[in-house]
Amino acid sequence: MARAVSTRKKTFYTIAAWAVGLIIFFPILWIFLTSFKTEAEAISDPPSFLFFDWTTENYGVVQERSNYVRFLWNSVILSLGSTVIGLIVAVPAAWAMAFVPGKRTKDVLMWMLSTKMLPAVGVLYPIVLIARYFGIYDSYLLLITVLMLINLPIIVWMLYTYFKEIPVDILEAARMDGATLRDEIIHVLTPMAIPGIASTLLLNVILAWNEAFWTLNLTTVNAAPLTAFIASYSSPEGLFYAKLSAASTMAIAPILILGWFSQKQLVRGLTFGAVK
Amino acid sequence: MATQHSRSAARFMISPAVILLLGWMLVPLIMTLYFSFLDYRPLRGIFDCCVGLENYSRFMGSSSFWDSVTTTLSMVGGILAITLVLGVLLSLLLDQPIWGQGIVRILVIAPFFVMPTVSALVWKNMFMNPVNGLLAYLWKFMGLQPIDWLSEMPLFSIIVIVSWQWLPFATLILLTAIQSLDSEQIEAAEMDGAGSLSRFVYIIMPHLARAITVVILIQTIFLLSIFAEIFVTTGGAFGTRTLTYLIYQRIIESQNIGLGSAGGIFAVILANILAIFLMRIVGKNLDA
After folding, report:
1. Domain topology for B62-287
2. CATH 1.10.3720.10 fits A67-270, yes or no
3. With an 8 Å Cβ cutoff, are B10 and A115 in contact?
């Protein structure tokens, strides 16, 4: 039941919430605005907010100087590739655990979650060594594999919590009607599982896109994604705020948009179903 | 009903995921464990087997280890304190009737999707720079001396940057928890004459306790391995060297694999102790 609220109270809460929201969002807005300034204007005193000569030249310069498109392409390949392969491995596993639970299913799930807590730095050198041994350092193969493995527990868990909600009665009814395991998967389960799989895909693409330990330490040129592209701007090169902003805007815009679609799944995915 | 046939099919479907994760966990971990008992410095061509626990005693006996533990604790503790206090307040505010609630939610959640290297670099240059940073202008505008944030108070600066990234996460989870609270319970308390403070203390906080625990544990796991934010701001200088960063420096920068691996094993043990607590909470939820 909705509670009656006075307009005055609602106005007060609205102003307060919008003020806080805008403060939190401000750095992102500022990156966006600065990316359209000239370098001189980007550091003008006092800072200009909206009334400056808007220019898009920074975007061109960033692309020319550091080949943004290549890093973007790498980010897309790594995040999408690792997530899709992760799903191929995880869907059967989560399906089996949700619909044919055994005595040890819970232990297996728990153990999978525990691998997520292994501190990356503890296994950094062995991974570098293995990569060098097989000659795959700084390659798509290595990065996709590593990103897939670090997100696999989350993928399995998210799918498991979604599959758990599919009513088992429907499967039993299908079985009664003589459906084979294959029919069951294709005609009954898949249509019901697709929303869960889609949101799992979305959240894990975001996580892989923003991953910044392995991508910084296992790439140099060939497989380097946007995280490494931005980190290359950390060396001081004089006045470069507008270009840094343009590069940053291009690095975060795609994922910001995806992220807004997935905010509901975020809670579920990152708390492993402990908060609903 | 699960038949014998479907059981074995299930086992077959689970095995690829289990085998992959088992390999991912065991192979590098066993290698790290092995290296931690060696004097292994590849740049100098040293590879001496079996120095016993010397790496461990050297790693833990050095003052940089204890400094890094202090730094790690203050960093994680500071970020947790900021994100939880602000997160509770913010989620209470967002739970109120607001015009354009959906848009405010989107504004608040946005920082979580900014990649760590971007947020660290932008904060470092465009906000915390003592000459051209926006905070320097703000300080000058208020008639104060601008602060060189990252060299005068580096630890605090990194805490601010990371808190900005994680506040949305805490807020979103706490908001989800608040919204699952039965509104009739609050109304009943209101009718019985409970003020807003006592409603908060006796109804909302106990309800939030579980969500707060989850936020603390999950954030701690992620915060213990903060890397990019330190890498692009201070590079571990000025007392911002956390345990993770110290191990990273030992392994990658000074190429002392034995010593770094001993540190790595220590970090693994630390993470596992925390993990046990989290698993208990998540596990309880599985039964329910």
Report:
1. MetI-like fold (1.10.3720)
2. yes
3. no
Strand partners, B78: none
> Each residue's pLDDT tens digit in chain B (288 positions)?
456 677 788 888 888 888 998 988 888 888 888 888 887 777 777 777 777 787 888 888 888 888 888 888 899 899 999 999 999 999 988 888 888 888 888 888 889 889 888 888 888 888 887 777 788 788 888 888 878 888 878 889 899 999 999 999 899 889 888 888 777 777 777 778 777 787 778 878 887 888 888 888 788 878 888 888 888 888 777 778 888 888 888 888 888 888 888 888 888 888 888 778 777 776 776 554
**Closest CB from B118, B251, B282 relative to A251:** B118
Q: Where in chain A is the domain with CATH 1.10.3720.10?
A: 67-270
Say which of B18, B261, B281 has its CB closest to residue A274: B281
CA atoms within 13 A on the CB side of A256: 20
Angle between helices A57-66 and A68-99 (to 10 degrees): 80
Nearest-Cα distance to chain A for B107, in Å, is 5
Contact indicator for A272, B282 with CB cutoff of 8 Å: yes
**Is the pTM higher than 0.90?**
no
Closest C-alpha among B144, B152, B146, B204 to residue B178: B204
Any idea of the CA torsion for A225, A226, A227, A233, to the nearest 10 degrees?
120
Chain A interface includes B104 (CB < 8 A): yes
**What DSSP element (H or E) covers B236?**
none
Nearest partner of A203 among A275, A250, A106, A272, judged by Cα: A272
Shortest alpha-carbon distance between residue B84 and chain A (Å): 15
Q: Which helix (H) or strand (E) holds B2?
A: none
CA distances for B38 relative to B30, B31, B87, angstroms: 13, 11, 46
Q: Render B134-155 in DSSP notation, one character per residue.
A: HHHHHHHHTT-----HHHHSHH
Tell me, what's the ipTM?
0.83
Distance, in angstroms, between A69 CA and closest chain B CA?
Answer: 17
Q: Does B247 contact A at CB distance below 8 Å?
A: yes
The closest alpha carbon to A271, from B270, B176, B180, belongs to: B176
